[in-house]
Amino acid sequence: MRRESKEKIQTIKNGSIMTCQLVTSSRRGSKSPSPTRASSKSPKRTGSGKMSDSRPQSAKSKSPSPTRKGSAKSRSSSRKRGSISPGSKKSKSPSPNRKGTSSASSRGRSAGKKKVRVKSPSRTQSGLKIRDLSDQGLTAVPPNLLAEKDLGIVNLSGNNLKNLPTEIARWDKIEKLDLSKNYGLRRTKASDNTSLPQEILTLVNLRELIISECNLQRLPPIIWQMTNLHVLDISRNKINILVPEVGNLSNLRKINLKHTNITSLPPEIVYCQDLEEILLWGNKISTLPETLPELLKLKTLGLNYRDFCGQMDAMREKFLNTGQVKSDYIPQIVFDLPALETLDLEGTKINNMPETTNHGLRELNLSRNFLNVLPRSVYNLNHLTLLNLSDNQFNSLPDELGNLKSLTKLRLANNQIHFLPLTIGNLKNLKELDVSFNKLKRFPINIKGLRNLKYLHAEKNDLTAVPDEICELVELQTLNLTENNIHTLPMRLHRLTKLKDAHVYDRYNKHGLWLYKNPLTTPPMEIWRTDKTEKIFDYLKKLAIIKTENLQRQKMLVMGESQCGKSTLIMGLVHGISLSPVENEEKGRKSKQEDAEDILKRRKSHDFNTENAVQENEDCQKEIPSLTSKTEFIEQTIWKTENMVEFVINDFGGDDAYRISYPLFLDANALVLLVYDHSEYSKKTHQTSIGEWLDLLSRYTPGVTIKLVGTKSDLCEDSYAVEDTADLVQELVQEHLENYLGKLRMELSLVERDLKEAKIGSIQDYIEHLENQKQKLEYLLSKPVKIIPEIATVSSQEGLPGVSHLVNSIELLAIDTELFPHGQRCIPDLWNKLRARLKRRSGYYLSWEVVEKVANNSHVKDDAITNALQYLHDIGEVMWFKNIPGLSRILFHKPRLLVDLITSLYHYNFGEFFNYDDNKIFMSMGKFKKDTFNEAVEIFVKYGQISRPLLSCLWFNHRLTEAKFTELLELMPYLDICYTIPQPEVPSGNNIALPLMVLPWYNKEFAENDVVEDFEKNSPEKVKPVILEYQFPLQLPQGVFEKISVCLQDHVLTRIDWKNAVYATLEDASFLLCLASDPSNPCDSIKLMFKGQSDALPVSSLKTVSQVITNTLYKVEGLIWKIKASKDVWSNHAIQFIQKDIVCEE
Ligand SMILES: Nc1nc2c(ncn2[C@@H]2O[C@H](COP(=O)(O)OP(=O)(O)OP(=O)(O)O)[C@@H](O)[C@H]2O)c(=O)[nH]1
Ligand SMILES: [Mg+2]
Prior knowledge:
The protein is an alpha/beta fold. The chain is 26% helix and 13% strand. The radius of gyration is 40 Å and the shape is elongated. Strand 1, helix 3 (143-147) and strand 2 form a beta-alpha-beta unit. Magnesium ion is lined by residues 566-567, 630-631, 651, 653.
């Protein structure tokens, strides 16, 4: 294979390598404060030899969740939840009572409701005093009140005042004066003007005067001079006539004329141009002035319109009912008030309505009339939120109904409506739709557009079915289907998670799901007759799962921090096994040493050569993985639920050691269970327990579906803590994703700006690079990871609380064709035959020629081969990296073997594993002596270099022949985790330590700053390096730099590696590639410094190296980057920024 064809001079031999100070911090950690520069060129390694723990310390301290207690906001979230551990003390108050409450759960927790009496403020908003002297039996205004300064509001209501004294002039700041219910203010004669003194006119700030219910037959005329008034309440005084002088009050906004015995308004009212509200209820109004429509701000005209038809005889009413005469007694003026907000013509016996110009109308009540059609202009009222047409004679409604986009309530009950217009789906804001007591046969499919609908009343119609589209109305809290002709409920009805109750009342209204008086068979009566929908939904869910045809096995990736409980959860899911107290104790006693032995034993027990497809699956099911250790890289398990939904579960070991190889096993088509320890979750731990994983998935599998699962709920304080934490998770996850999208948007605007500038400079390559990145950003913005809103909280203790609920929701996700369209493909039988044949082949992988041969023998040909392989990959039977050049024509027909090969190289506890005395393998297989063994191990754990003898020990359980060993050695670099070094033809020196394979991930040695200086000074000294910088606005995932390092191997002659840098030479140039670890830099970056032989640009070498970098970066689908380079580098086309295969020169 390609790697052998090239002779290379390696400088990385023991004794000739440049070493730097060993820094034992994490990859992204800050640098050690003791950079001993002197050692940078020492020929001997000087490290301590101990493996440093480069894993970031997970913040596991049990800090109390900051928002746990007293956070009404978080508790009252409307989140749908998974079941919580039993013993929940939370009272499940029926949802109708929740309406408008601030916190349902906080209420459940407190012993009882307390009425809080809100004290009225003693100051107005502007800081003036408020004095309430109502109902005190006062006959005169108290002198001390008259002496008070800075009065803003004075309430003298309900006293026995005869008049106000002239001293009120002192209340120069007063804004509101309430004199209501002072019957002594009554004027006996027209000339009696004593009740309100002239001084009242000096109160220029007085905006509101209430003089209602004072038994006045005449109003004090001085009122009509109070032109500063905004609000005047003269209600409940039998004044009979409103005088034309009211027109003087030019600043008036509201006038209350209720129960004043007036029959009309003076035309002069129109001079009050600011009037917004006129209340006339309780009067027998017979006419209204023609001038009224000139009040352009009039929003409310409170009028009892029924008075207009009050005297109607039975004959006329009958004619109106049958449409023989037209109703015309509601003054046309009412329909011409442009700012009117509410028009209530309920029960006014009208059978027609004129065209309206009430453009400001928000509520229109036309119920209990004889209407069967509305004027067109009603459908143009685009502020209308309520339209009540109940109890009329409508047969249908026109398509124009869909124009009323502001509608939140549409009441059509008790008409003769046969069908609803399709445009009803346009009413996106609709919350309430009442079509009960009509003649509807079906709902239109567009009803699914009513995403905000909460109440749907369809009692007593002729409905024969509930369309599946109803299941899209996820906000529904009431669905009343009583008395119809429905036989079956849709299987996806369970999606209506807010529809919790069934057949209950909220006050006098039917609430929840109502199904009485229907010939229902699915579900049967014993199921649907219930007061909780859960039972109905469970039945329907099961039915949905069972009835789903062609459901294929699906891939599930279980990921999350180490020790958060993934494997234990899988044991619960797959085998129904919980943690027993005894097992817990035993586990506590077990030493790490024993753990290591377990691993060895388990590996030995694998017999790969006899493996075939069926057996492998059966093995997976039978073999119950041990729970005594951390998962090593990946455990694969096949799981079939009771309802026969099948998954291949990839249980990822959460240890950092495995993260470099994760990308090989990530799959955007899989369902990800993102598991975190619920009992330890807090704002502090969010990043390590969830955030990092979301970032990883966003980078490698944009658009993947993620279900969050919180484990160890038994360790939470109580069920409230479980819920509070779940709320916090939801809040922070939401925030996390918003931040991510925010960053993408910001980056997009920056790239667009750069593009504009670049176009001025017109450097074509740079423009193209920016355009590529712009496209990528737009693509990523359209494909954020999909997080299932319901968070599952589970425990693996006795009874497995929450687990069955989780199983339920996983099954439902699996049959959701929107999320997993490939899950229900129809698979030709031939493909399964192909699977069996492939699985029967021996070896670790199959070449493309073999695959084609087997496929043809199974009658799978041409394009069908790739489709079949993709299917087998999706269901976890094979691994096919069709997008990785070099691997696309290789099939790993036994994924477990591949996993095992990789696992051998990435132990989380190599420290324990490399025990010379306990493990005879090192002596027998590796021919090591203790000292040579220690040396080989040290080189490995410090620099990632593995010698041939050590590698044969790591792979000992595969029982490889020499040829197989060599074959695998050639294959491994294609996985981008290691590179190999050809051995000299003639073995020289000590091959115990001679590197054969290098895993850059293990390199612990950081490059010092002077490496850069050295590079600049190195020959040719006078040549200035060309600098390229790759900037990553989104964090660069761990392992990408290492991948670049691996991929460079094919193109360099010599190299020196550090953890964060590679120095290498090519034919005509040398370069230094550094991962910038500058904490002050807001974004990650990789710097490439390039030096040719002369000042001339080494274009060809630059192209090669930049192509390697570009190709590697493109493997991370969700990564974006910007290349910064000087103008001449761009204009010489020296940077390769588009993904392309590199042809290796032989
Ligand atoms: N109390 C309690 N302990 C649990 C629960 N689930 C897991 N554990 C314990 O948590 C520890 C880690 O569990 P694992 O299932 O091995 O964790 P993991 O996520 O698979 O860890 P890695 O394989 O390292 O990634 C074990 O000691 C379990 O006993 C649970 O629900 N309740
Ligand atoms: Mg595990």
